Amino acid sequence: MCGIVGYVGAREKRGILLEGLKELEYRGYDSAGFAVLTGERGSEQMQSFKATGRLKNLADKTKDFAFNGFGLGIAHTRWATHGKPTEINAHPHTGEFSYVVHNGIIENYKELKDELQALGHTFLSQTDTEVIVHLFEQHFSQCNDPRSAWERTAKRLKGAYATLLITKAAPDRIFYAKHGAPLIIAGKGTESALGSGRESKAHESLESAQGAERPQIEIYFASSDAPLIGLVDMVVYLEDGAVGDSSDFATLSPKVPLSHSKSFAQKDGFRYFMEKEIYEQEQVLLETMLGRVKEDAIVLDEIDPALFDGISEISICACGTSYHAGMVGKYLLERMAGVRTNVVLASEFRYAKPILLKDELFVVISQSGETADTLEALKLAKSQGLRTLAICNVDNSSIVREADAVLLTRAGIEKGVASTKAFATQVMLLWILATFLGVERGVLGERERERERANMIAAIAATKVSQNLHERIKRLSKRYLHGHGFFFIGRDVFYPLALEGALKLKEISYLHAEGYASGEMKHGPIALVDANLFTIALMPKYLLHEKIASNVEELSARDATICAIAQEEFALADDWIAISQAGSYMEEFFAMMVALQLLSLEIAVRLGNDVDMPRNLAKSVTVE
Ligand code: AGP
Known about the structure:
The protein is of the alpha/beta class. The protein folds into three domains: 3-262, Glutamine Phosphoribosylpyrophosphate, subunit 1, domain 1, CATH 3.60.20; 266-462, 3-Layer(aba) Sandwich (Rossmann fold), CATH 3.40.50.10490; 465-618, Glucose-6-phosphate isomerase like protein, domain 1 (Rossmann fold). The chain is built from 19 helices and 23 strands. The strands form four sheets. Strands 3-2-4-1-10-9-11-13 form an eight-stranded antiparallel sheet, covered by helices on one side. The chain has a five-stranded antiparallel sheet with strand order 5-6-7-8-12. The protein has a five-stranded parallel sheet with strand order 15-14-16-17-18, sandwiched between helices. Strand 14 (313-318), helix 10 (320-337) and strand 15 form a beta-alpha-beta unit. It is globular, with a radius of gyration of 26 Å. It binds 2-deoxy-2-amino glucitol-6-phosphate.
């Protein structure tokens, strides 16, 4: 979704801002822009640039510009919420002497806009964001103090926001405010200038450096850590309610190390991040297991065991792919741990007046840890006194910080908008959790625990992409580009996998696809069946094979075109994607998952689509 980058310092600003935005590209956007304020005190120059479409358009438009010397820059990628993705609606938005960028939604923008228009402010865009800059200038005209004007501005904003503002009224600092959307500040420079919780003020060094001497320190802002990797070592994840300016950095706490390595974020010779992430699954799944699944025990020592004391049931709440992982979790938790489990969509949960039980464990699942619906559902459950557990891929994300306990999936940075390795690690972690609780609750004995461990190891090996499989799917994909739609069908854990297969295909191929419980086809959807309806049938050997086989037969009798994904060939299927020989249904699950991911990828590639940045989608959905 939208992305923010900010910079205070002497380095060339266009390059830094564009590079930073590039790191956020994967999150999805439809326009971009930046504003800079440079020059000596008293002769500051402010300029802004915007372009619709890809970042390259902004880079081309600004190729003749360079902004050296001490100054400020703020930049933004916009995913349209209020107003179309036009240049006028792109950020930064401006008033008379300031620029603002913003992620999130200002819920009371209409009221503020009416008020400001009545005071003579002219608005150019259809966005909610533009009110921030006018509100600031209005307050500044009254108090003539930029810091106080900014604090008063933030007080008036309702909704979710991470926002940066630069103004000629304070040309040495960037103003920030954060509530409900992530924002990070980081510094680089001499120890004394940056401070480490001492009373030194970074802006003093900045101000003294306004003249002949260039400042020794740089301050960066970003809406996620990707743009900061390799630039800074220590960061501050700002808390909700944080309002201030870049000169506060020295006194902010806690400063924490930035943990990711840049190499995780490169394509390493693959055509797409999604492809690389499919191939990485074997490696990251091993990380997920590491230290948790031991030869003689399942150990979750990240969690206080009291979290599980006396729980009567579990509710899992998530969106999209994470919701599908949650559905797999329900089958596993009920079967292996004997604990009743509900799975709910976060966007539905929030407004449904859910009945929550005090002895219920509330589990949220999120790759990004920033999904607004999931975060709000978590807050709601917490406010009702429930114990909460987050299964998340991003340490220090809002969801991680909010939950009582956390299990990190350890998938590494996932850049493809279509989630692959994050899903794999979520399912693995739920499987580990189900085994752990199964043992704790006496449902699983030692033999069963050992069996699950062996199955997990085999399942991870089954995610290794063989060249045969990939080539087969590449060739096969050309037969599945037309038709009037896809049905992905499966039973039990293969039903959420079918939902996930259909979601993957929709996201990147833009073809219509539905996931269905195979036993439900005869209750309606079978009416759609003809030779141009493609059915992708998940046919495990070790779980309800006969049942799914008869469902597929019913479709075949009505001339559906069927592609079976299975260990063994099924005579009535038109095509067969053979998965490697497996010894358990969960091993088959992980092998089929890879086949489905590759099938979506190759269909989308043949259709000429941008696999990593599909239209209209955002990696991290920070609006409800
Ligand atoms: C997955 O391919 C999707 N892009 C999307 O459904 C995603 O899973 C959903 O938005 C939830 O995101 P989260 O896991 O970061 O909370």
